[in-house]
Amino acid sequence: MKNYLLQEYNVQKQSGFTLVELMITIAIAAILMAIALPNFSSFLVQTRVDNEISQLQRLLLSARNTAINAEQNVTICPLNSSNTCDDNWHNEISVFIDIDRDKVYEPAADERIIIVKGAIDNNDKLQYGQDSIIYTPTGSISGGVSASPFMYCPKDYDDKSRGITVSTSGRSYVSSDTDNDNIDEDRSGNEITCS
């Protein structure tokens, strides 16, 4: 008889969340998102900077390798509307065979574009102390290099700035944080900062 009573009064249990449980879950999720979003923004900026520096490093390597392999002078610079090098490094940057080393892209003189890197984010800065770099057929730099490295500085994140130093031998070196202060330094130990 006991089994019969238990079966008769057995109430089916409903599954689901109560309103209180749902509100607590939403509150916890909101707190976690408030903690994660600022870090995510910083992560996105760091990724953008690393990507731009990697692209610029590959551009420099491509220019040097092309100069050596083609046994031609190769120029890397931002070209203006008249195909002349200028110092607006935040614009598109072109690598081209520059037979007469005049820093002018002249397709009629059998000069050809090797590769073009797109412009950087409008709010960021890319600076370099010269209007061009010319690689000779030996892979070294013609006319010297800037004393300051390429410097890429994202807007409102000065501590995320990175750079590339180009030596007269033609080699390029990406900056790193050598003193563990979370700010990159060039090969001389100077912090990467844009003006």
Describe this structure in words.
The chain has 195 residues and is of the alpha+beta class. Helix content is 30%, strand content 17%. It has helices at residues 2-8, 19-70, and strands at residues 74-77, 93-97, 113-117, 125-127, 133-135, 141-142, 150-153, 162-166, 172-174. The strands form two sheets. A five-stranded antiparallel sheet has the order 3-2-1-5-6, with helices on one face. A four-stranded antiparallel sheet has the order 4-7-8-9, with helices on one face. The radius of gyration is 28 Å and the shape is elongated.
Quaternary state reads single chain
The CATH homologous superfamily is called minor pseudopilin epsh domain
Percentage of residues assigned to helices: 25-40%
* Intertermini distance: 90 Å
Strand arrangement, largest sheet? 3-2-1-5-6
